[in-house]
Design brief:
By secondary structure, this protein is of the alpha+beta class. The protein is built from three helices and ten strands; from the N terminus they run αββααββββββββ. A six-stranded mixed beta sheet has the order 5-6-2-1-8-9, with helices on both faces. It is globular and about 40 Å long.
Length: 166
């Protein structure tokens, strides 16, 4: 886990030293099962400029995360975008995922979602293709956490599926 955070931090720092080049496209998505609420708490982290560009490509209109006047439009786009490019299946049943919101800073965007209630899972399947609509070199690092057990895997475009048993 420390390696992932080091790599992600290193890549973020490189991105802003050579912003024009931006030679890589990486993000992460975590699916964390909360025993108390019986839901998966889902969070994604992406480079701000990559997500802006992916939304523009998908919806045909530019938005800017650090500009308050775009907040409602960004929320509307992210609801649709996440519905299409992020799926969760538990014990052979697709779960409804609800969009909660986003937070941004000058470098990255965090997206927050939550699944419908489900009993503690034995098998978790994800389909994550966020930013694949724009970048054919996108790498998404997926973390699935159930009962404190973390299973992580890197998915490179076009791979989008991850299956884990708990």
């Amino acid at each position: 886990m420390k390696t992932f955070f080091f790599l992600f931090s290193f890549l973020f720092s490189l991105s802003f030293q050579a912003k024009e080049i931006h030679p890589y496209h990486v993000g992460s998505v975590e699916f964390n099962y909360n025993q108390k609420s019986k839901t998966f708490e889902i969070s994604g982290k992406f480079f701000l400029d990559d997500l802006e560009n992916a939304l523009k490509e998908k919806f045909g209109k530019a938005v800017h995360f650090n500009d308050e006047k775009y907040k409602a439009q960004i929320n509307a786009y992210l609801i649709q975008y996440c519905e299409e490019y992020l799926k969760l299946k538990v014990d052979n049943k697709f779960l409804k995922i609800n969009y909660i919101g986003f937070e941004e800073d000058s470098e990255s965007v965090d997206i927050y979602l939550e699944s419908e209630k489900v009993n503690p899972p034995k098998k978790v399947e994800t389909a994550v293709s966020l930013l694949y609509n724009l970048y054919d070199d996108q790498m998404n690092i997926i973390h699935i956490i159930v009962d404190g057990k973390r299973k992580s895997q890197k998915l490179n475009y076009p791979d989008r599926y991850l299956y884990q048993n708990f």
